[in-house]
Queue: 4 jobs
Job 1
Amino acid sequence: MADSYLTMKEFRTKIEPERSSNKISYHTPVLFMGSCFTENIGNKMVDFKFPVLVNPFGVLYNPVSVRQSLEIILDKRDFEESDLDFFNNLWFSFYHDTEFSNPDKQECLKKINGRLNQARAHLKTAKYLIVTFGTAWVYKYLKIKRIVSNCHKIPAKEFERFKLGVEDIFVQWAKVLNRMEDYNPGLKIIFTVSPVRHWKDGAIQNQLSKSTLILAIHQLIKIFDHIEYFPAYEIMMDDLRDYRFYADDMLHPSKVAIDYIWQQFGQTYFDQTTNEVIQDVEKIVRAKNHCPMNPGTKGHQRFLESQIDLIHKIIKKNDFLNFDDELNYFKSQL
C-alpha cells in the first residue's frame, strides 16, 4: 500500500476534451458572442491575429440576449433613434452592453450600427460561431415587457427577474439555429458555459442556472449535427478545483486559469500548422510588450532591428498576417 501511494502522480481530476475533427485555422473566420468569458478566449485569438470578431453587442450573459442579437444580425435592419432609450444622461440600447452608451444620440447610433454591419458581414463568411452562456437568470423591463441584455443602472424595481427553463432555451435557439443555416449553410457552432459563478444568485441558484444552460445546450446537440460543446465550465470546476486559480474576487478565473483553458481549447481545435503560426506571432507580441531596461542602447537597437527582420520572415511564410502595428512600433523606437 505504501509503495502504491508513493507512485501516485496525479492529485487532481484532469479533464482532457476530445480533439475535434473540425479545426479552426487562420483561414476560418470566427464570431464570438456571449459572456465575459467569451472575451477571455476571443481576445486571445485577436492578439494572435486570427480573423475573429468578438462581442459586437458587448458582453451578453443570458441565452435570450445572445439569441436576440443574432436575430437582429439576420434581420438586416439598422438601429434607428426610436430604438434607443435615455437614462442618467446617456442614450443606450437595451440590446447592448453599456460600452455603447453615449450622451450623444448620434454617436451612440453610429457605434451600434457600425458594429452591427461589421457583425453581419462577418457572420456571413464565418466558419465558426462560438457562444458562451453565463446565466439562465434574466431581467424583463416591465415598461416594455421585454428581456434586456443590460439593465443600464435603472432601478431594480422596474424589472422582473426570473430563471429561464431548459425548454425555453431549447425551443428559441432551435428556431434561430435554423435561420442561421439559411444565412450561412457551412457555419459550425461551439457552445460553452462560462465558469464565472454568479454569486449574487447564491450557491444553489447559481448551480441550477449553470445546469439549466448545460442541459439546454446538450438538447440542441442531439438535434443539430453542426454543434459542439467545449467544457470550459467543467475544466474550471473540476480540473482547476483550487482557489489559487481564481482572481481576487474568488469568482473570475485568474490569468493562469484562462491560459490553461486556452491551451485546452487549442489542443481541441488547432492543428500543428496553426500552433506553429501562433508560436511565431506570440514571439512578436511578447517582444512588443517587453519593457526594455536600457532603451536607446546599441543592444536595444539591435533587438528592435532583429524583431523587424523576424516579422518580415514570418510574413513571407504567412502572408495573411498583419503586423503593421508591431512594425510601426519597432521602427518608431529606432
Note: DSSP finds eleven helices and ten strands in the chain.
Job 2
Amino acid sequence: MDRATLDLQYNARATVPDIAPMLSDYASLSAQARATLPCALNVAYGPHPDETLDIFPAQGKQPGPVLIYLHGGYWRLLSKDDSSFMAPTLTRAGMTVVAVNYSLAPAVTLDHIVDQTRRAVAWVHQHIEQHHGDRQRLVIAGSSAGGHLAGMVLARGWQENYGMDSTAIAGAVLLSGLYDLSPLVDTHINDWMHLSLEAARRNSPIFALPDHRPPILVSYGSNETAEFKRQSRDYLAAWQTGSGQAEYVDMPGTNHFDLVLQLNRLDSPLVQKLLKLLGLAH
C-alpha cells in the first residue's frame, strides 16, 4: 500500500463521526467505579510516577481471577483513570480488576512502554493476593494499542527476567489490536512513535508467539478498516497454530472505540465468553 492508503487504514478516528462521547464515557464510568466500589488507587508497581495501578477486588468470599486492563490511545493518549469502566460488572461476577497506567509517547519509546506493562503484570502476579485476586489466574486485556501491549505481555522471551510465571496467564481479551507494527513505520502514527523497522518488528506480538498459549478471545468493531480486521484475523490464526485456543467474538453494531465498553455489560458476548472461559458463567 502507498502512504495515503496506509494512513487511511490505520486512522481509527476516521471510522466514527466523533470520538469525544466515547472518551467521555471511558472517563465518567471509570470515575463512577472509583467512587462507588472498594478499590486501592494509585498503587505503585515501579519507581516512576506514571507506574501506577488501580485495583478493584472481586466481590465474593473467594479470591477472583484477575483482569489486567491495558488502555488504548495509540500509545500517546488516555491513562488508567479512563480504564476501570468494566469494574462494576466484572467484580460483581467474581473477578478482580486492575487498570494499568504507563508513560506515553513521544516522551518515551515503545520499548519503554512494553517494559512498563510487563513489569506491571509481574507486580500483579507477585502481589495481587493482597487484593483478593488469584495470582495463578491472570487475564490480560487491552483495546487498540492496549491490545498490542496485551500481545506483548503474552509474547515469549521476557518472563524469566521479570520473575513472572507465564502459566499464571489464564487467558486474554484482545480488542481491535495491532500485532504486526511493520506497516506503521510508513504512516502518520510514526510521527509520534519514531519506530525503525527493526523496533517495529521487535515489538510485534505476531513474531514472538509463546510456547504456552492460554485461551484468547479476539474481537474488533464491525466498522473497522480492512487492516485492523486483517491484523486480528492474522494473529488469531497464528495463535491457533500449535494447538493454541483462540476464538473470534462477533460484536455487530460496535466500532473501534465503543467495543471495549461492552466489558461492562454482563449480557454482552464478550463478557459471557470470558466468564465461561474462567468458570464463572452466569
Note: The longest strand covers residues 133-143.
Job 3
Amino acid sequence: MLPENLSAALDQALARFSPQELSDSVARLTERYRVAGVSTGGNHLRSRADIAAYAAYRMPATYAAAATAMRQAATLTPGFEPRSHLDAGGGTGAAIWAAAGVWPDIQHVTVVEHDPHIIDLGRRLARGGPPALRGATWRQASVGAGLDRPAADLVTMSYALGELPAADRPGVVGWLAAQAAMVIVIEPGTPAGYATVAAAREILAAQGRTIVAPCPHDGGCPIVPGRDWCHFSVRLPRTALHRRIKAGTLSFEDEKFSYVAAATGPWPRPAARVLRHPVKRKGVVSLRLCADGDGLREVIVSKRQGELYRRARDTDWGDPWPPAG
C-alpha cells in the first residue's frame, strides 16, 4: 500500500482530471503497450492526462514491487544504511518513495528521467514526502553508459532497463554499479523481464559483487531459459478510482516482478529461497527451492516433522528456507 502522504498527493494530482479522462488514457496506454510491447509508459505518454493516468495505473504496483525487493535486500544486509540514492529512469518516483520507507536515513536523492512532464508530476508528489524526497534532484536526461552521475550508496533501476535497446543494457548495468554499495534492478515478472534481470545479475556477479537477493548464491542461475523464469509476487489493494480506471472488479491485484540486489562485500544469505507458492495439502507442504550448490529442488515437509512443518505452513512464495530459528 502506498504511504498515506503519497496516496494523498497522488489523489490531489488526479483530481484535475475526470475519472473518464483517466480511464480513457489508461485504455490508450494499454493499447499502445500491446502494440509496442514495452513495460512502462516511456514515449507513450502523450499528454498530462496520460501521465496522471499512468501514475494512477502503475505507481502503486511499482512501489509495492520496489518496496518488497528493497525489504528483502535490507533484511540480508544488516548495518547497510545508505545516505544517498540514485534512481535511474525513475518515472514519477515510486522507487525513491519505497527506498525512503526502507532506509529512512537516506539524505540525498537523485532521479534521472527523460520526460520533463513526468518529472513535474514526480516533483509535485515528492513535496509531501520526507525531507530527502522534498529536496531531491530531478535530472532530465536519458539513461546511458556515458552519462555523468553522482556517486551513490544505493542505485536502483525499476521497470526501465528492459525498455533500453538490448545492446545498451550491459553498459548501463556497469554504469549503475559504478561507485555504488548496492544496486537493485527490478523488471516485470515475465520471461522477458526475468531475462533482463538475469543478464544484469551475470554482469554484477562478474564484478565480484555479492548477490544478496533473491539468490542464495553468486553462481549461474539454474533456471533453464524457455522452461521457467524466476519471479515473485506482491498483493496490493485497489482504491475505487484505481478499480475504475483499470476496469477491474477485484479490490486487490497481484504484481509479479523479477529483481536482483547486488552489494559490495560479503553478506549472509539463506540456504535457499522459495520460488513458487508452496503447495499445501493435508499433512504435507511441498516447496520448490533455489538452493546454493543444489540448484533447483523440491522439498516435502510432512506433519511428522513437527515444528518444521508448522513453519512450512506459514512459509510463502519468496521466503527464505529454512526459516530463521
Note: The two ends are 29 Å apart (CA to CA).
Job 4
Amino acid sequence: MLELQNVYVNYGAAPALWAVSMQIEPQELVCVIGPNGAGKTTLINTIMGLNRTREGKILWQGEDLTGLAAHRLCERGLALVPEGRRLFGSMSVQENLLLGAVHPKARAKRADTLEWVCHLFPVVKTKLKQASAELSGGQQQMVAIGRALMALPQLLLLDEPSLGLAPSIVTEMFNVIQAIHERGTSVLLVEQNVSRALAVTERTYVLENGRIVSSGASDVIANQPEIRKAYLGL
C-alpha cells in the first residue's frame, strides 16, 4: 500500500532521515516510536509531501509519489492529523471539519462522513457551531482527527495525537484510533506514549537519529530488553 524505499531527508546541510525503508499494508495499524528529535515528525511530514526527499522513493499503491504536493496526496487517499492540531481557531468546529472534505469524492459524501465523525466524537456534535479556539485541548484533537476523516482516507497518519491530553482523554483517543482501524482504514501512528502505542498496534518501527534501528510485531518489540528499558521504564 505505502512503501518508503531508502529515503533521505535533509534540513539544509543537516541530515534528518537516513536510508529509511518501511511499508504499510492495507488495513494495518502501525506505529513509529523513538526519542525526541529522532525524526518522527520529519518522517510523517515527508510521507505527506511537506518535506522534500534528497534520495529515495515514496510509493503509494505502486505509484511513485515522491515530490508530489500534499493536496495531491490527499486526493489519492492519505490524510494527516498534524502535531499541535492546527485548527482555524476563529472558524466554527463544523467549518473546520468541512475543510477536510475538499476533494470531489469526499465532498460528495460529506454529510454522511460528518454524521460518522459526530458518532465517533459525541461531544463534537454538541460543539459544531462553536469556535474551535474555545474548545479544550482534547476536544480540539477530536476535531483535528475528524477533519482528516472527512477526506475519506485509506491511510490516516497521526502525529502525537495524545500529546498534552489528560489520561482519560488519552484512553478515549486510543479507543477511537482502534475504531477507525476496525472500520477498514490503515493507520500510521507516531506516538510518544509508547506503552499505549505498542498495545494497540500490529507492527512497530523504532526510529533513532533519523534511522530505523528496529522493526517487527509490536508485541515482540515491546518485549525487547532495550525497548523496555529505554521507553517503558522497566
Note: The chain has eleven helices and ten strands.
